[in-house]
Amino acid sequence: xxxxxxxxxxxxxxxxxxxxxxxxxxxxxxxxxxxxxxxxxxxxxxxxxxxxxxxxxxxxxxxxxxxxxxxxxxxxxxxxxxxxxxxxxxxxxxxxxxxxxxxxxxxxxxxxxxxxxxxxxxxxxxxxxxxxxxxxxxxxxxxxxxxxxxxxxxxxxxxxxx
Length: 162
Known about the structure:
69% helix
């Protein structure tokens, strides 16, 4: 697919006045360039690269998914550097993660997540052995709003207590 083919493809719909993630990244990149903020600029360029390359992904993905995947990579790297005691790299990754999370939709707090799990379990009946099915059904409903690593232990604890 060449440049002209991409221009002719339909663009994803966006709500009135709401810039797409790609546009927002491009504008923020220009602002970081003007301010001379090299660290922020570097992170924005990486996200921009990932977002522009979603066409090359093996399965269909969105710009938000690409940024979330980049955040996940940063978290994993941060954990690894923490294990080997490289504090300078951990601090740098914390900063980068802070920048990236500014572009992600806000996730529910652990308290909000617990309320969602309680409401979900009140409407559905799962046994302790059906944690996987409950997790799948819950994430289908609330996947973008919650952190899976918070939901899983909550579901296990609540189902074990039934």
